[in-house]
Amino acid sequence: MIKHDFIFKPGTWVGEGRVTFSTSPEHIHFYTKWIISKEEQNAISCTQEVEMRGGGENVCNHFTFLDISDTSFAIQLENELLGKTIGKGVVEAKTIAWELRDHPDFEGFEVYELQDNGDYMVHAEYISPDSHRTTIDGRVWQKST
Length: 145
What we know:
- A 10-stranded antiparallel barrel has the order 1-2-3-4-5-6-7-8-9-10.
- It is an all-beta fold.
- The model has no long low-confidence stretch (mean pLDDT 91).
- It has one domain (11-39, 59-142): Lipocalin.
- The two termini are 26 Å apart.
- The chain contains no helices and 10 strands.
């Protein structure tokens, strides 16, 4: 049985961190909000909104987690910029992670490490076909009601 609340139990999670790009020495502060719906037919739907400080429109990602077992899952990501991409994920005692590789213009991974206080530290890296790397570091925590 999965012991993680993030992703696998309905609720709202918020977070913040920084995004860096291999083409620039600067970083951008971001805020995020995850809305996790209840599981239906072994699938969980999530909406992730990302707001960049000082930068244009928010990004809205729609995730679907499928074929969920105690140790793995399939993942589908959809947004306006990329369309749809799929990948695979793993679940361990203190970690949730996934990798997306089936899109010609986009590949990368995200790792969520459970902390003692219930928050998750996030590290993600994505690379474009022209080898530009985007690195994301931050944390998410469950929003209190």
